[in-house]
Each structure stands twice: as structure tokens, then as C-alpha cells.
Amino acid sequence: MAELKDILYKVSLTSSFGSMDRNVKGLAFDSRKVTTGFVFVAVPGTLSDGHTFIAKAIENGAVAIVCERLPDTVNEAVAYVTVKNSAQALGIMAANFFRNPSEKLKLVGVTGTNGKTTTVTLLYQLFSALGYNVGMISTVENRIIDQSIPSTHTTPDPIQLNELLKKMITAGCTHAFMEVSSHAVDQERIAGVKFAGAVFTNITHDHLDYHKTFENYIRAKKKFFDELHSDAFALVNADDRRGMVMLQNTKATKLTFGLKKMVDYKGRIITNSLDGLELEVAGKNVWFKMIGDFNAYNLLGVYGASLLLGEDSDEVLLHLSALNGAPGRFERVLPGAKITAIVDYAHTPDAVATALAALKNVLETIASFRTGTEQVITVIGCGGNRDKTKRPLMASIACKMSDKVVLTSDNPRDEDPMQIIREMQAGVLPTEARKTLALADREEAIKTAFMMARENDIILVAGKGHETYQEIKGIKYPFDDRQVVERVLKLLSDKDN
């Protein structure tokens, strides 16, 4: 419960009608979620405009309306507030309604095309190991200390976000780490949230289906840094040519990390293998469990952010060296097995260019570890009810960069798995057809890949990563690539013994 006038604090009003002295039980920008005593915020959206649902919100019990333009007919029993940007107003109001929880903990946001999930997960794991009560908001899951909460978006809407942060405060969290997507910045989902710091990982041509131009995409990322407070830090990957752009207008303390340039937090790769990474950091050689030069950048970003949050360098490196990173992100299953098995998310459901780049990057990283005659065998599928144009392209990349490919189902949803596979096969050249198999049963496909493998071969199971289900005809069946791979590897090990 809060006073309407209190939750409007710092909101830029253009006009108001009716009494602001009224109790508010909750906020909503979906009229279906409005109940008695709620404020309804009419937000123009890409698919629908909240202004068309004002009457429905009042019918459901709204006591106040926040909008960019008044409806033709006003209800005298309801308070109306007009603003220039109702999405921004929603963020500020949500922060006020939940008593500005972001101001009561050290909240760090991580943005960039790749590495957000891994960086946030590492920060969560690290600060938990350092003895803090920690919260996490990520694509994979949200966490309040040990409690796991399902994640539906990379960055939640403002109401969910501030409610989640409030629960973290109540649970005793002192630190929180969250992914900040370009969509979230553009849609004002983080308006009213105070960050102790921000980390920029990298940027590639991504989400142009939403942002339309690469410049708009960069501008959305940069807006996050532009709006940081002067007592925050802004830490960027200086090896990415857009890194310094992020720092141009920020009031925050500006710092850098990287492998190539003169930076504040510098690393040097000594060993990069399928067994892990050896980096020189702060004059020390440290072995990390994680794989690939992209993870060297993730580790350096985490290291720098940790020191900026007041932690000791030696303590950070000690704990960081023991961490595994985000589940399903270039995750090696049962290291030490005779066959190297890697599970990776390797796709983005809504952005074709990103999905293709992710798969290509993973296969390029695997290729860099080949030392001899190892085969690369890729198991891959594409999701149903999603952009069909990427299906042949994903299969084409897998075939070009693998010795053998097993095409299978991912989350077929309402589509026929074999039809999805046929559309993937359209991208397979006749000369490559001989090295592909099509098996709709995903578990059978994974098992078959291992049956084809020889000792020292590398198998990539791509597409689902951290997911623990397979969605078929509206039902989510338990399915975890990592568990299937582990079972198969153990069976092969038992046979050898």
C-alpha cells in the first residue's frame, strides 16, 4: 500500500486531474491484472496500445490512470495523470511503490551482445563464495540467495523487477547482478533503478529486427551508461571498438578491461585448451576451468567489477578459478572422458543474425582446439513456431564447420519435428548430405552422435543449453541435454571398463 502522490515522486507530469491523496494497492500496465485499488499505466506497445484499455482497467477497479493522452470520456471517481513517457513513468513509479529497493543494495548491470549471462552468473557465484547474500537476474534464471525463480525475459518488466529487488532486500541480500538487454533500456524497464555499476562485454550486429539499425542498437546500449549516477562505475571491454563509445557521456567512474590494449584490468592468455584457461592477471598466473578466449574476457570483466565493489584481488582470483560459469553456455560435460562433449545454447530464438553468429562462434572456438584428426560432430535442431528463415542457415553453418551433423528436434512446439528438419535440410549442399543424419528423437540423436564418435572426437550438442524441458504440443516434457550426454558418456565408460 502506498499513497498515489508518493509513487509519482520524480515522475515528470504534464497534467493531473482528481485527488492525488488516495491509497494504491498495486500497479499494472496490463488491464487484465488490475484489481480494486490499482493504478493502471497506459503504455503504448509494439502490438497494442495501453490507452485503448483504460476503460477496462477502470471497470476492473483502477483508482488512477497514468497516460500520455486523456481518453475522450473521463470518470470523475478516478484520478488521471498525463506524462510525456508512460513507460518511463511506470519504471519510476514501480521503484517508488516498492520503496526503491535498488538503492539498498549494490546492484550491477551487465550489457552487451554476448557474455551477459556468463558474466552475471560468475558474479553471482563469486560473491556467494565470498560469503555474501546475493541476488541474480538473468536469462537462465532469477535467484534470491539459494532460491531459484523461473526467468521469462532477459530483463523483467519494471513491476516484476522492483518486486524481485524488494524480495532480495527482505531476504538480506547485499549484492545483486542482472543482465540488462537493449530492449529493456529502450523500453524503459530499468527507469528508476539505481545501479552501483555497469559492465559492457561486447557488441555485434544483433536484434536489428527490433532496433532496425545498428546505430539504434548501439544507442540503446549507450543509454544505460549515459544514465548512470556519478557514484557508480562504468567498466567496458576496451578491445571491442564500441567499448569506449559507451563511456563518452557517462557521469560514472570510467574503467576498462581487455587482453590487447592498455587497460585498467588487463589479462594475457597463457594456455587456452579444452581443459581450461591459464591467464596472467595482476602479475599472477591463474588457471580457470572455463574454456575459450571469449571467457577470458568474461573473467576479466568479473575480476574488474569485483575489485570496484571493494573485494581483494587475491581472494577474487582464488574463488574465480574454481567456478564453472553459466549452465549450458559452452559447458563441457564430464571433463576427462575419452570423447569431449560440449553443450551450448548456441542460438537466440528471436534474432536470426545472432543465432547464426552464436553457432558459428562456438564451432570456430571448437576448431581452434583441434590438434590432429579429431572429428567435430554437431547435434542441432531448430525450434518450432519461430522464424523459419534461419533453419536452412543453421544447418548450413553446422555442415560447413563439422565433420558430421545430426539434425534433430529442439522444441518443436506445435510443428511437426520432421517438417522442421526438412526445412533445415534445404540448407545442406548435395556434397555435404553424406555427412548428415536426420533423427527427430533428440535423445536418440545425441546417442547416435556418440556411437559415431572415436576417442578424442569433439561432440557439440547445440540449441537447448540450460533448458530442462522439451516443448511439444503445448506440454513441457523433462529433457536436459547435459543429463542425456552424461548418461551416454558413463555408459561408454562402463563398456570400456
Describe the structure.
- With 497 residues, the chain is an alpha/beta fold.
- It is 33% helix and 24% strand.
- The protein is built from 16 helices and 26 strands.
- The strands form 5 sheets. An 11-stranded mixed beta sheet has the order 11-10-9-12-8-13-14-15-16-17-18, with helices on both faces. A 6-stranded mixed beta sheet has the order 19-20-24-21-22-23, with helices on both faces.
- A hairpin with a 6-residue loop joins β19 (331-333) and β20 (340-344).
- α4 (116-129) packs across α10 and α10 packs antiparallel against α11.
Class by alpha and beta content: alpha/beta
Helix content: 25-40%
Strand content: 15-25%
Shape: globular
Strand numbers in spatial order across the main sheet: 11-10-9-12-8-13-14-15-16-17-18
Q: Report the sheet with the most strands, covering strand number, pairing sense and barrel closure.
A: 11 strands, mixed
Overall pLDDT: 93
Distance between the termini: 65 Å
Number of contiguous helices: 16
- What's the number of extended β-strand segments? 26
Radius of gyration: 24 Å
Which stretches of 5+ consecutive residues score pLDDT under 50?
none
